[in-house]
Amino acid sequence: MGSLKDFFSKKPDTTNQDPHQYDRLGLTPLLHAVINHDREKIEKLLEAGANINQGSGPKTLLGMAEDVDYPKNTTALHLIAFYPQAEIAELLVQKGAQLDAKDAAKRTPLDYAIMMYQNFGGQKYVKKPWRPGYKQKMEQAEASAEAVINVLLRAGAEQNDMRIPDTLAKKHRVWQDEQKTKKQGPGPSAPF
Fold it and tell me: What is the secondary structure of the chain as a DSSP string?
């Protein structure tokens, strides 16, 4: 028998778990796969019938000792916005993830993506000379969050509590205008 520290440091094994069953952290196997950016496992779980819109549940008493704390009803789309990765966000949207799902704090996946974009954007200006490459890592993370915001907006996500940063809002309006132009087709030709 190991120590309590060993017990709490073990990550939950979700290999043979019911896809709808919560673990001690209040997470399903699908939510763990999303956090780990495991596209293959996400696809297998969805094929096995995992509910793409099932939110996180309550932590057990043992789970409360963990550092991770997600509001109840945090869905896979919330988590991929929190741990931004656009390709998985696209997969979840294509598979029917609810764009307007709200966690217990009434935040949508778009709210999460905007928070992460602002967080990473602000962090790149923090001077950490002892950490080489820190600014570049924050810029990459900011770009990942921006890509998730674009996926959500293009899929039709509506703004909730968080304000979309002006630069992203402008880019999205340009994209919307391009889409309208494509649908309308070319304008009338000038007679010669």
Answer: ---HHHHHHSPPP-TTS-TT---TTS--HHHHHHHTT-HHHHHHHHHTT--TTPPP-PPPTTGGGSS----TT--HHHHHHHTT-HHHHHHHHHTT--TT---TTS--HHHHHHHHHHHHHHHTTS--TTSTTHHHHHHHHHHHHHHHHHHHHHHTPPP-SSPPPHHHHHHHHHHHHHHHHHHH-SPPPPP-
